[in-house]
Fold:
Amino acid sequence: MSVTNSEIAVMFEELADLLEIEGANPFRVRAYRNAARAIADNPKRMTDLLAEGQDLARLPGIGKAIAAKIEAIASTGTLRQLADVKRRIPEAMGRLMHVRGLGPKRVKTLCAALQVRSVEDLQRALRSGRIRELEGFGEKTEKLIAQGLQQVAADERRTSWSVARQIAEPLVDYLRAVEGVRHVTVAGSYRRHRDTVGDLDILVASGKGSQVVQRFVAYEDVVRVVAQGRTRSSVILRSGLQVDLRAVPESSYGAALLYFTGSKAHNIAVRKIAVRRRLKINEYGVFRGDKRVAGKTETEVYAAIGLPFIEPELRENRGEIEAAEANALPDPIQLRHIKGDLHCHTTASDGMQTLGDLAKAAQARGYEYVAVTDHSKRLTVAHGLNVRRLRRQIAAIDRLNEKLDGMVVLKGAEVDILEDGTLDLPNDVLAALDLTVCAIHHRFELSRHKQTERVLRAMDLPCFNVLAHPTGRLLGERAPYEIDLERIMQAARERGCFLEVNAQPQRLDLSDTLCMLAKEIGVKVAVSTDAHRATDLDFMELGIHQARRGWLERTDVINTRSLGSLRRLLGRH
Structure:
């Protein structure tokens, strides 16, 4: 059975959720969560690594016990320990852990007091008004839970882009091997690099007689064929994701790619321009009367209506048509522009890479610099650094830099912003750092006013450089907290501070629209990976796509600068 990394990771996450509700050893729960993250983020399939004979226990965050469980999942498709705990705890209770306002203690209370064992039970309890009557809950918590349920319902209909990629890439490789297939592209919101996708739209250019549609419905992960025709088919994969295939001749491939990439609003705007020029655009081409005048490439289609090529990430009808007509499209940032990563963790806190491993991985990517930003002391769950341990790390970085050639490790910290707006470490030790990445990790439920003032007070401090993951969202798990980002951005610009585009696939925070707002206000950002292992540095690609969707250019991103220029930008204190 070809089990994907995301499927394995979901099993471990679900096991961790249920064990936490049950009150299991927190270190055991954390081990499963770390394993889930390590598996989901690994660019290579666990099943492929096993087939190659590799020892999974050598991977960061895995270990012998977890490796044995992965091997069992790969061979059977199931995890015995998960089945065991499901017999003790209703499976649906695990979903409750992802509802904003709930945690293991509150889930246990709801179960004991109101017999809540599923999302449906929780909805009924909310409607009855009984939740607010429980000790430790109240009206405010009830409101949070109601909002959380709405978010969960919306998120369950979509798949994160990074998970969709794990599903899409093997399928694309499979289709490319079919005789007669010339091009294969995953279109739709996937190609536009939205942070989540609803389904996958695959476009194929193939010659006459190609069996690509028949091979598509025979793919090993297909569990149900929704529809099958001569040139189009739709299936449901084992992951639950729907995939639609369209096969077109090469002469129409560009027009079809434009049409199926979308967005719908962008396509409507394009067709309106065509109408003004007495042309017609559809998925088969650009036509003047009955004559096709373009269609083989997207560039050709755009040119036929007097527009330059518009990057897929920009196609949301958020001003890109007007910018194209005025020859004022942005020159979107590219991965090759990045000179370093400004948010990385090591084994000193909750990372799984040593200081030396991080430096080696950054050098391998050709970076000029990389910042070590381990957590500060308040985040005890992440083994955050106190003053003594941070000073010791500073000295270790100085020693490492003496040995490195062609790259510099920057001394930093991910410092908690406390509720009163102070930072978690004293100014004298923060002043010894090259940069601080400051973040909110607790009291997400504060009002919009209080949360905003909290960050503004922190920004007034001379050692504040970058606001990390500014909205605190976790895709599919936690909605953004209430905060006035427009005020925050204006204050950041005035104070010489910056905001982060966190490239972790479950964060992608700032969102694309907030990247656009940052550009409009004139505050610069850092695109960083928040890497906890060496392979996480590859997430930079996801952050770049997010920045491109937000119209950000090279000059809008501080870690496209040389080390000297970056130091001047960061030198508030």
Q: What stands out?
A: The first helix runs from residue 5 to 22. The two ends are 57 Å apart (CA to CA). The mean pLDDT is 91.
